[in-house]
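Instructor's aside before we start: the two examples that follow are unrelated to each other. I chose them only because their records fit on one page, so don't look for a connection. First example below.
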Amino acid sequence: MSGKLRVAIAGTGFGAKYAVGLHAHPEVEIVGVFSRRAERAQAMAEEFGIPFWTRDFQDLVQLPQLDVVAVVTPNSTHAEYVRTALRAGKHVVCDKPLALNREEGERLLREAEERGLKHVTFVPYRFSPASLAMKQAIQEGRLGRIIGMRATWAVDMKAEPLRWRFQRKLSGPGVVADLGAHIFDLMLWWAGPVRRALGKCRTFVPERPAEAGGRMRPVDVPDECYALLEFAEAGVGSANLSWNAKRDQRIEVEGERGALIYESPSLLQWLSGRGAFAPRVTFVSPSPSGRTSELDLPRKESFSTPEKALADMFADIVSYLRGEEKPDQVATFADGLRALEVVDAVVSSDTGGAWVEVPPQAAEESPPSSP
């Protein structure tokens, strides 16, 4: 692709982080911004020097010489906006999760592929130096064959009011999709596809005060979930996801030659100026002593500040959108769909009380084997 990549951003919440990352690149021109609230669209346009703002999504996708639409709106609108952008002939970057369910995700992937358009599901944790170190070590056969995985992550939201994420029609199945979209994606990326899942979910905070007026309203999504996962060729795994405590991301990957432990504070909070970000990966020897050593993290200097990190993430995405080979850490709609399939299987299992098969199309790739 010659000339600048012209991008429009739909969404002014986390969409502002997209603008920071994209604005850092001379090859990119942000040409428009959309929000259903006109004042927010106008404010973001003024902050980043974007020439066009609108509260009509159709106006956004009809901008002349537009190449890419970034969809960073509430989860419930992803499918509608992505489909509209694809039918307007635009490449699409969609914030995770790709859609509310597997069926929506399948339709979006099929439409993008049929139209020959590039598609990205933005999963920021893939770009973390610790995630990249895990991927590299597993690919190089540091662990040999993977025997099992254990993941935990908890974000304390017990005192939060009834925001969109606590309403199924707006966010999907609660903590399973909110935290699971990140955790399941990392597990799939490192260890390959999941064959089936068993899930148990609960809602421990059944009512929350409405943002307007404070009247208590019912919550219809789970805030606690435990899932067992059977991988196609990488043993078994588990994931504990919670909105009722505070625990950093921790994923242990056990192999024949030792174990890798990935630990990460919240990348998203750090990008928003809250907290520190110092992830690490530890190798545990299989010897009786259990000797440990920390792995060197690639591209660590890029994560010295949120602005540099965002620029680094979107440099990879922009290179792919401009026609270069896709970096491995850039997730496509196919990757977004695989995570959705695991989310759906966990939720269905909780409802039916039995193991649920993940559709075969999610099991196309095998995990890295030992050299």
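Example two begins here.
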Amino acid sequence: MQVKPLDDRVLVKPSDPEEKTASGLYLPQGAKEKPQQGTVVATGPGRLLKDGKRAAVGVKKGETVVYGKYAGSEIELKGVKHVIIEESELLGVLEK
């Protein structure tokens, strides 16, 4: 099963949460923070403008994006958690 986002929505696979702190302590499962970055899996065609044209989505498949802690809607595809986020809720793209 595949999901094709609509309009200006982006399907993101969140990064794995940190398993240990900067000081080297391992975190139990319940103490791990919800990830706030992930990899773009798919994008919609873009937001529909008043003149009937579509505005291109500013991110591409494979890019790593940063988003707010409570942004988007979580879904599960083949046992893997993903987030569908509107493009306006994305905070930035991480460059390598």
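The chain is about 0% helix and 40% strand.
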